[in-house]
Write a structure and sequence with these properties.
This protein has about 90 residues and is mainly alpha-helical. The protein is about 60% helix and about 0% strand. The chain has helices at about 10-15, 35-60, 65-85. It starts with 11 loop residues before the first helix and ends in a 5-residue tail after the last helix.
Amino acid sequence: MARAAKKTTTGGRRRNYAPKPDEIGTRKYLPIGWANWLGFVLFGLITLAMAAEFVASIVESRGADPIAAGVMTFGLGYMVYLFGTVRLRD
């Protein structure tokens, strides 16, 4: 009589559905590849500069400049968030 071949397992059902290590905790907000890190840092620096301009334009009360600086700060901050969370690997 022939025996049935043993079924090999790959870690079980729970392991198969577990999230990747870079998708949990604070690591999910940090970039993975070098291109994402480059964009994250560069857009981060520009966002900080625009935030400083936003504060300076409010202090000096330059008309509609705070509105434009605030919109640009928000838009660039969103780009930093996208560079940090998009999971494209090199």
